[in-house]
Amino acid sequence: MFVVVFIVVHAGLVEDGVALHARGDIDGALRLFEAAAEVGDPEALHNSAVMQYMRGEPLKALALLDAACRVQCDVANVENTRGVVLRRERGDSWIVLV
Question: Quick one: CA dihedral 20, 97, 45, 58, positive or negative?
Answer without folding.
Answer: negative
